[in-house]
Specification:
3-stranded antiparallel beta sheet, mainly alpha, about 230 residues, single chain, 10 helices
């Protein structure tokens, strides 16, 4: 399976105490990065052998990711990467707006540590120059993860980690990733510039409009794709 390429290299991330939580962390990242697209059936034997973990450990990891709405178990068929509905996408954006805007609003007094945001913007610009539209989508997600991380809250980071992974499931079904992601690269730079200047009010305004525009665009494109794929 092509999507298993490199998965064996992730064994090192398991450490000496292989746990279902660490396996789920690896698989969540792989799903978010597009190695396992929506609708993919996850083979217990192939993944278990690649990671060197027991069937029971892998099944517990699958259970955790099913609880996070990234996987779905189909009776007598196995475990599959979940395919989102349009309503799922709408709800993801509602959650993003609530959390991300609140993070910016609550930043306190400047200066703000925005090195992670700056790196994500630079990575996005490089991906755009190279025509790597999947890489640009990844850089955009990283930008928003770094934005959430400014809150300094482990719980918020964990919540949004799953939300961003779910969002990536929608991105994988879009057939024109350049058109989807490229317009927001400049907006990331504008938000970064506002925060570098200590203007969290301007950053929140830019972010709110950004997320609303993104929601409309993604829902439009995703809804059309879902309709095309419907029997």
């Amino acid at each position: 399976m092509a999507e298993l390429n490199g998965l064996a290299n992730d064994r090192a991330l398991l450490g000496r105490t292989s746990t279902a939580e660490r396996v789920s962390d690896i698989l969540r990242s792989r799903i978010a990065e597009g190695f396992f697209p929506p609708g993919t059936r996850l083979s217990e034997d192939s993944i278990g052998n690649a990671l060197g973990v027991s069937r029971n450990t892998l099944r517990e990891a699958f259970r955790l990711l099913t609880h996070e709405r990234l996987l779905v178990h189909q009776l007598n068929r196995g475990v599959f990467v979940r395919v989102l509905t349009v309503e799922d996408v709408e709800d993801i954006y509602r959650t993003r707006s609530l959390v991300e805007c609140a993070v910016v609003r609550g930043l306190g007094e400047p200066p703000y540590v925005v090195d992670g945001l700056a790196k994500a913007v630079a990575d996005g610009r490089r991906a755009s120059r190279e025509g790597d539209w999947k890489g640009l989508g990844t850089a955009n997600i990283h930008f928003h993860r770094e934005l959430v991380a400014l809150a300094g809250s482990v719980r918020t980071d964990e919540l949004m980690r799953s939300v961003f992974a779910e969002l990536r499931l929608a991105f994988h079904l879009v057939d024109d990733p350049r058109r989807l992601h490229e317009p927001y690269l400049a907006r990331n730079g504008q938000i970064l510039q506002a925060l570098q200047g200590g203007d969290r009010g301007e950053a929140e305004t830019l972010l709110g409009v950004y997320l609303d525009d993104s929601r409309k665009r993604v829902v439009e494109v995703y809804g059309r794709r879902v309709a095309e794929d419907a029997p």
